[in-house]
Specification:
Elements lengths: L5 H10 L1 E4 L9 H21 L12 H12 L4 H4 L18 H7 L2 H11 L2 E13 L37 E6 L10 E3 L12 E2 L7 E2 L11 E3 L6 E5 L4 E3 L8 E10 L12 E5 L10 H15 L25
Helix pairs in contact: 2-5
The protein binds 2-oxoglutaric acid and fe (ii) ion.
């Protein structure tokens, strides 16, 4: 297996992140995902056109431009349509999402799992905190009523802060990778080296931007942040307490990435209502889950369950966060 070197492990321990180039073959892993998402975008365009929400299906445009056109006409980012996850609130039985075979293939890619194993050991669980992010050039994206891009840079946070308290002791590792080259101008991750050695910091709701939760910059060394550009085929590893966000996409292309998470089998995922699975086990290799159809089915079951919980205006039946309430740091 392509294990990380001692130097790489030391770097991760010291700085709380690690860029690793050439982990997997993009032609085998991410290109098929791009292909798959062309179909997803076709479906979206078809639906919106049928509903009279867009003036054209924009079939003549390449993927990024087409998505941008759709966002410009609808003033919606349609992020959920592409995501292999679900919202925390207001899920319906037909809430859009995407759990395609090419996506699953990335979650169980052996080269990625080799890297993960180097950090968390050989008993690897695929944690369901996972997303795709497809961000058009920021200057082309509509703004919301607060003057904020409807799909802009990711604000400062720690991934530890997005899971529930039950996962406080979980050794969760984030694996971020681009589907297209992600140079600095495309808005890759930015991280604060060494910030993982501190505590879980307070995440403030509506701190600068209404509806957005972030860590105030006076709680960490924001000036010490560094961008982490990455080419396709490479991954960026993040410790769960490393403070990070993303830069803005000031390029002419879309910035397209996956962020996956893994933890040792048996530890709490921090989002237990969403389904995870055993991605690798040296102890019980027969338990390794490799059925993309079943994976999709488990999420479709979850969608049905979620459609009865956490509805708008109703009770919070299943909490997803820990930052409700007032914190002195947020004043
Ligand atoms: O890709 C982004 O903009 C943010 C990703 C992120 O926060 C993560 O991978 O944990
Ligand atoms: Fe994150």
């Amino acid at each position: 297996m392509a294990k990380l070197t001692q130097n790489q492990l030391d770097y991760f321990e010291e700085f709380g992140f690690l860029p690793v180039k050439n982990v997997f073959d993009p032609e085998k892993v991410t290109d098929p995902i791009i292909e798959e998402y062309h179909g997803v975008l076709d479906n979206l365009a078809e639906e919106l056109f049928k509903d009279g929400k867009i003036s054209s299906k924009f079939e003549e445009f390449p993927f990024g431009k087409r998505l941008t056109k759709i966002m410009q006409e609808t003033h919606e980012n349609h992020a959920g349509y592409f995501d292999f996850s679900l919202p925390f609130q207001g899920v319906k039985e037909d809430t859009p999402c995407w759990f395609g075979p090419a996506v699953f293939n990335a979650l169980v890619n052996e080269q990625i799992l080799d890297v993960v194993e180097s950090i968390i050991g050989s008993e690897v669980y695929s944690n369901p905190v996972q997303h795709v992010r497809i961000k058009p050039p920021e200057r082309e994206i509509p703004k919301n009523e607060h003057g904020q891009s409807i799909l802009g840079a990711t604000i400062w946070h720690q991934d530890h802060g997005v899971v529930t308290e039950e996962a406080d002791e979980t050794n969760m590792l984030t694996v971020w990778f681009p589907l297209l080259d992600a140079p600095v101008e495309s808005g890759p991750l930015k991280v604060v080296p060494g910030s993982h050695k501190g505590e879980l910091l307070t995440h403030c709701n509506d701190y600068k931007i209404p509806g957005v939760r972030e860590i105030p910059e006076n709680l960490f060394d924001a000036d010490g942040a560094v961008p982490v550009p990455m080419e396709k085929g490479g991954v960026v590893l993040l410790h769960k307490r490393t403070v990070h966000g993303s830069l803005s996409n000031v390029s002419d292309n879309i910035r397209w990435s996956f962020d996956l998470r893994y933890n040792p089998i048996g530890q709490h995922t921090g989002r237990e209502i969403f389904p995870g699975f055993i991605a690798r086990s040296k102890e019980n290799p027969d338990k390794e889950f490799r059925d993309s159809k079943k994976w999709k089915d488990t999420w479709m079951e979850t969608r049905k369950i979620m459609a009865k919980l956490n509805q708008e205006g109703g009770d919070v039946d299943v909490p997803f966060g820990r930052w409700d309430g007032e914190f002195p740091e947020c004043a």
